[in-house]
Amino acid sequence: MAELIKKQYGRVVSVELRNPSEICQERNWRKEFEGFCGVMHIYQSQHKSPGKHYIVIYDIAKNYLKTGTGDLVECKNRITLTTKNSIYTFERINIERKAGN
Q1: Contact criterion met (CB below 8 Å) for 3 and 43
Q2: Cβ proximity of 40 and 55 under 8 Å
Q3: Rounded to 5 degrees, what are φ and ψ at 5?
Q4: What is the pLDDT along the chain (101 residues), one digit of tens a residue?
């Protein structure tokens, strides 16, 4: 079972293959998620890959992207997750409520 570490609104900035080939670039379905916005859950694996993280981001229509497990680096409002096959970059989006809303 994984532990939910953070829950926040975010956006997929980029998805790059770690070892791209011409054929793989054409089949990189992950690229379709660039610009995808939604609720982002960051998990830390407790058993299968202890200490590794993965991210699930989904929108109101229940479309989602779930990454594999990998190494997580946070820098300001950016999160980079490096998995076996891909490098994902996410951006945190702060949503502030205004008085009366």
Answers
A1: yes
A2: yes
A3: -95, -45
A4: 789 999 999 999 999 888 776 555 556 678 889 999 999 999 999 888 888 999 999 999 999 999 999 999 999 999 999 999 899 999 999 876 555 55
DSSP class of residue 74 equals E
Contact between 43 and 5 under an 8 Å Cβ cutoff? The reply is: yes
Q: Where does residue 27 fall: left (phi above 0), alpha (psi -120 to 50 degrees), or beta otherwise?
A: alpha
Query: What sign has the CA pseudo-torsion 56, 52, 86, 77?
Result: positive
User: CB–CB of 6/42 below 8 Å?
Assistant: yes
Q: Contact at 8 Å (CB) between 39 and 57?
A: yes
Exposure string over 35-64, b if 16+ CB within 10 A, otherwise e: ebebebbbbbbeeeeeebbbbbbeeeeeee
Report the predicted TM-score, pTM, of the whole model to 2 decimal places: 0.84
